Amino acid sequence: xxxxxxxxxxxxxxxxxxxxxxxxxxxxxxxxxxxxxxxxxxxxxxxxxxxxxxxxxxxxxxxxxxxxxxxxxxxxxxxxxxxxxxxxxxxxxxxxxxxxxxxxxxxxxxxxxxxxxxxxxxxxxxxxxxxxxxxxxxxxxxxxxxxxxxxxxxxxxxxxxxxxxxxxxxxxxxxxxxxxxxxxxxxxxxxxxxxxxxxxxxxxxxxxxxxxxxxxxxxxxxxxxxxxxxxxxxxxxxxxxxxxxxxxxxxxxxxxxxxxxxxxxxxxxxxxxxxxxxxxxxxxxxxxxxxxxxxxxxxxxxxxxxxxxxxxxxxxxxxxxxxxxxxxxxxxxxxxxxxxxxxxxxxxxxxxxxxxxxxxxxxxxxxxxxxxxxxxxxxxxxxxxxxxxxxxxxxxxxxxxxxxxxxxxxxxxxxxxxxxxxxxxxxxxxxxxxxxxxxxxxxxxxxxxxxxxxxxxxxxxxxxxxxxxxxxxxxxxxxxxxxxxxxxxxxxxxxxxxxxxxxxxxxxxxxxxxxxxxxxxxxxxxxxxxxxxxxxxxxxxxxxxxxxxxxxxxxxxxxxxxxxxxxxxxxxxxxxxxxxxxxxxxxxxxxxxxxxxxxxx
Length: 601
Hints:
about 30% helix; 8-stranded mixed beta sheet; alpha+beta; 5-stranded mixed barrel; single chain
């Protein structure tokens, strides 16, 4: 075989006159019929044009070149020259071409079911592409995305190694523990009737590393959650997982902020700067969501005090409820851009979040228009203009209900308005730390508390007494990292006191026996000298999604699952041999007469 000397996409004018060997796939082929055969040869670095002058090559090269077809795998030896005719500005190699002298066909390709063409990707459809992923991954965009993923992984390892972290592994076959999602479970052949679980995260094991004294741990690790996939979620995904000992919240956040600044500079040459910090309460009040998108305005304002003066029944009924509020969003320029069709559709949509609708009003050049305009005569209208800073041409959207319903309704509506009115600027990166989450949420039906993050999250240092006196007011030492409205990472300072951990389990409805059964190994570790520690997990897939500007997580995973968690390439999940199931105790063992045979290995 001809030995490669250069990648296709690396050739430049500096190589003119050199004899090179390139290898790759035939991307396009053209027989000009004048004794010239042209082809574009593709490898992971790009394309280069190859020209065969059939009068100047051996007969076997003439025959082989005329038999080329798309996706054939070939090696070419030739001389680099300046491209005859105009350069191709769309190619990095567009100023040069190779005059082929030798051609070795390494593998003839059957007619492929799809072609790795960017312009055909949407037309073909995702299902067909995933079924033929080995070809789909040849597309330049997919090659670029997975190269970015590799660069992210390398930068991650280098950054944390330079900061004293050890890369340590945790097991995949573990005990099932309640962590919020359903486990994937694996039967044990050696212990019939018992099961392993695939880890939803390495949470407990990385805490054990801290108890063991390793001080700083990092792992790029696969995690598994049996939940319905969606555009930004997969049943198996990758975390950048870390833990640190003898630290507080500020230490962990500073370490991760440095990582993010370095990563964005490395991949995009973008300077992130200092990442702002916002409390959970402030995020909910101003944006209606705990992962706010700061790229656009549309902040939420509480106008309850103003609304009490209005003779508007919808507002009055809401304010009569326990924790009833009226909230509003100012939409700049909305007087002209918002249509009745839009506001009617939004009113129906917010009902899915428990709200009754979206009252609205517009401020035109001559005064209030449409919606609740008749209630805004005189001082009432002036007061609203003053509170919201309204200008002629603006519109206002309202939600009136309990605090929880109105906050969520406007939080979701705010994002929809920004999308539909195209208010989201491109090329901006707005990072945010959200801190001071409630420690618990109340499940009134079950009569117990639910951990806002996970049951190993510590209260803030000044909140421990509230675990006994007022758990609902307790604030946790958790923190989430948000980017452009997407949570890309989250973590907390952990509980290192056995007494505090047992109290949290009690509040979550876990008896001492249940806690020992499910988390006994962790509780034993806490009894044997656990240091103060904390950490965080970043979603590597979501990081790459942002860096590559895609909203589909399947674009950044080499071999992803579909919306119903199927692998179309390998046709998994699939039935297994009955003999295997019998060995695992999942089917009765066959009798001698009906012995189930298994294929030999």
